[in-house]
Write a structure and sequence with these properties.
The structure holds two protein chains of two kinds.
Chain A lengths: L3 H23 L5 E9 L6 H18 L1 H5 L2 E9 L4 H13 L3 E6 L3 H13 L3 E4 L6 H4 L5 E3 L4 H14 L5 E6 L3 H16 L3 E7 L7 H10 L3 E5 L2 H13 L5 E4 L6 H7 L7 E4 L11 H11 L7 H21 L4 H10 L19 E7 L12 E8 L7
Parallel strand pairs in A: 1-2, 1-3, 3-4, 4-5, 6-7, 6-8, 8-9, 9-10
Antiparallel strand pairs in A: 10-11, 11-12
Helix pairs in contact in A: 2-13, 4-5, 7-8, 10-11, 13-14
Chain B lengths: L1 H7 L1 H29 L6 H22 L7 H28 L8 H25 L5 E2 L4 H4 L1 E3 L5 E3 H23 L1 H11 L1 H6 L4 H27 L1 E2 L5 H14 L4 H25 L9 H15 L14
Antiparallel strand pairs in B: 1-4, 2-3
The chains are: A alpha/beta, B mainly alpha.
Chain lengths: 396, 323
């Protein structure tokens, strides 16, 4: 065969024949593919938490897909990286709704990403179950497809302020936030409730700075508050607290669940030992039903689950139960999966049942203390307060 | 109480501003020197800066795991990481020039600019790839050396930490050596000649390519040194940390009069001080209406004002036609 064009033609015919002969065989008795997607930051400064969400979801899919497969569905897990950026999350969301096989999304980490992305999911009524988004807006929009297995910031902020006032007995607080939808709103809830309780708010500042907090800390040091509250995420909070201690600020530190990552101590070290943070999810070790999960996780991935891995596992369990319910009725569609999710009654790791907005009927809130500057011991952080609170009645 | 507070923190704000300003100044030198000889903006300089910071942290971390961090005297450790950071950054800058800019030397001015932006993205992700594979982490933290965090209390609210003194000292030393090099040595004279007229300089027997390489080496070394100091001072770095300081240092270079070495130093200091003032005072002065988040807007508004009245920058008038 000297003629290269002829060779090409023959090769393509051969390839086509191969494809045609394979295609019908694989489709024989299957009812199709069902995909479960996760969206969380897998790269960048918040990847530690995002990776936890991905792995928790992956573990649940691999462990629990059996029933669905028996019913004739092929189950796949597809992780997406939203880079903790709203624009990336929305772009991924558009790809996700374009893939007809994706029936559920587990995600996101950041409320500021989850809110715009869920607007996209809404277009096709694709179910999103959030393991970590605590901003009230996530469920207050009353979208039938959006649910979450964690608590809410309007409760978490109050839990924090109550702890600061009642247990830490602080008289004054300086509040800093990261200007994101998550950080600023929880800081505002914390501020409002602190003021209500008579704690003096000496300052309320937003900053996007990631490395040099000196100029921000100088006035804080001069005002010498009893407590500094950082509404934001650990990759910004950790250097902030570290530099605060290095500057000789002796105030107590506190933050919301965004601080809940072993990277906080990896970055800030001794500076954050003794610091308190609130959580609307809680460490896996504190959740009574999570023991088996923690062992499975360690066995599979060789490390301790980060915060939200257990929540993601639970969210995925709910997703798979909903898928099974829909599969039994026969007609697999996004609409029916979204409806089925709300009906799942699973006494899982994180709680039980959803209300009409997609919040947990009762969510758990924790206040924890950092006990060690060793990141490996993050899971040992002490729970100093644990509450079970129903979501507040809709404000609107 | 408010007035007392405002005056009380003033020295601390000045100090913060000066430290930040020196950092910008060191970084701005890289931009201004390259502009001086080639008349284009080396946007990859912010990554050269952060490479210095990464070299520093890698050495410190390996010292730490070898247990040398507590054994070796701290000034020696600092000298080692400074020299290593400067060397690596300088060489990287030189290689970039050889690979990405020299082939485009005679192309229109915009072409090497685009090449520089490309190199900048490339380096960011190379660092990210390397650190993910090597340490499996995105953020790296400078190990704490307790001596450096020791603080001298001057008054109740004002204090100086050892590391800020180190940063100021190192920055002054670097600026002074550069100034001497450019103005008092034969090499410096050659650099100034190349900046003024490449063709004439080569007719006078100056190897233009070598001088340009040398300019990148020195500018890169300054950037790398700034990177190490940045890491020592602020401790947290990631592959994208360099971008914002780089942009601000470029602004500082323009503010001082681009192509002008003392101008870059002055511009850096002015910008650093403006930023520190804005971040510390805005919310105090406006009763919380404008917070520290507006520091960049404030600082850059002042810059625009200065540039409206002095388009060539603060020291722009002594810049010659082509320098």
């Amino acid at each position: 065969m000297r003629n290269p064009r002829l060779r090409l033609v023959i090769a393509s015919i051969a390839a086509l024949a191969l494809v045609l002969s394979l295609a019908p065989a694989s489709d024989a008795q299957s009812k199709g593919t069902v995909k479960i997607a996760s969206q969380s930051p897998l790269s960048g400064g918040q990847a530690v938490l995002g990776e936890g969400i991905k792995l928790g979801t992956q573990l649940a899919v691999e462990k629990l897909k059996g029933n669905l497969e028996k019913m004739g569905y092929k189950v796949e897990f597809v992780p997406f990286d939203d880079q903790a950026k709203p624009d990336v999350g929305v772009a991924n969301a558009k790809n996700i709704i374009a893939d007809k096989d994706i029936m559920v999304v587990i995600g996101h980490l950041n409320s500021g990403v989850a809110i715009p992305s869920s607007e996209v999911y809404k277009e096709t009524n694709l179910a999103m179950i959030s393991p970590a988004n605590t901003n009230p807006v996530v469920t207050d929009r009353n979208y039938g497809n959006v649910s979450r297995v964690c608590g809410r910031d309007d409760v978490q902020g109050v839990v924090g302020a109550e702890f600061a006032h009642g247990t830490l007995k602080v008289k004054s607080v300086y509040i800093v936030h990261d200007k994101t939808q998550y950080g600023q709103s929880i800081a505002e809830f914390f501020k409002a409730d602190s003021e209500k309780k008579g704690v003096k708010v000496l300052g309320f500042e937003g900053t996007e700075e990631k490395s040099n907090f000196d100029p921000l800390l100088t006035p804080i040091k001069a005002k010498n508050p009893d407590l500094i509250y950082f509404g934001g995420i650990y990759d910004q909070g950790a250097p902030f607290f570290k530099q605060a201690r290095e500057k000789g600020i002796k105030s107590k530190f506190m933050g919301p669940d965004g601080m809940d990552s072993s990277d906080l101590t990896k970055i800030a070290g001794k500076a954050v030992v003794g610091m308190n943070y609130t959580s609307a999810a809680g460490p896996a070790s504190a959740l009574p039903k999570a023991k088996a999960f923690v062992e499975d996780f360690k066995k599979k991935f060789g490390k301790n689950p980060e915060p939200y891995a257990a929540e993601s596992y639970d969210a995925t369990r709910i997703a798979i139960m909903a898928l099974e319910d829909v599969a039994k009725s026969g007609k697999m569609s996004r609409e029916s999966v979204s409806t089925a999710v709300r009906k799942v009654k699973l006494a899982g790791i994180t709680g039980d049942g959803f209300d009409s907005k997609g919040d947990r009927l009762k969510a758990q809130y924790f206040v924890l203390t950092v006990v060690s500057d060793n990141p490996e011991k993050w899971g040992d952080n002490k729970i100093v307060k644990q509450l079970t609170i129903a979501p507040p009645a809709a404000a609107k | 109480m408010d007035f007392e507070l405002l005056i009380g923190i003033l020295p601390q704000v000045l100090l913060d501003g000066i430290i930040l300003g020196f950092m910008y100044a060191l970084l701005a030198l890289g931009y201004t020197m390259v502009y001086g000889v080639l008349e284009f903006i080396n946007f990859a300089h912010s990554e050269i800066f952060i490479i210095g910071a990464f070299v520093g942290v890698e050495i410190l971390l390996s010292f730490k795991s070898a247990g040398w961090l507590d054994v070796l005297p701290w000034p020696l450790i600092l000298v080692i990481i400074m020299v290593a950071g400067m060397a690596v950054s300088g060489v990287v800058a030189m290689v970039i020039e050889r690979a990405a800019y020299r082939p485009l030397r005679h192309a229109p001015r915009l072409i090497p600019l685009i090449s520089a932006i490309g190199v900048s993205f490339f380096l960011q992700d190379v660092i990210r790839l390397f650190e993910s594979l090597w340490r499996n982490s995105f953020n790296l933290v400078y190990p704490t050396m307790d001596v450096l965090n020791h603080r001298f209390e001057l008054t109740e609210t004002i204090d100086v930490s050892v590391k800020s003194l180190v940063v100021i000292g190192a920055a002054l030393l670097m600026l002074w050596s550069l100034h001497t090099l450019v103005n008092r040595t034969k090499v410096g004279k050659a650099m100034r000649a190349v900046a003024e007229d490449q063709a004439a300089a080569s007719l006078m027997g100056i190897n233009v390519n070598r001088i340009i390489s040398l300019t990148f080496l020195i500018g890169g070394a300054m950037g790398g040194g700034a990177g190490v100091l940045f890491g020592v001072q602020y401790s947290l770095i990631n592959p994208y940390t360099g971008f914002i300081p780089g942009l601000k240092a470029f602004t500082a270079a323009v503010l001082g009069g681009i192509g002008n070495v003392p101008g870059a130093m002055l511009g850096g200091l002015v910008l650093g001080l403006l930023e520190a003032f804005a971040a510390s005072y805005l919310s105090l002065l406006t009763g919380g209406a404008f917070g520290a988040e507006y520091k960049d807007i404030f600082a850059f508004s002042i810059l625009i004002l200065i540039l409206i009245f002095r388009p060539k920058g603060l020291l722009g008038e002594i810049v010659r036609e082509r320098a």
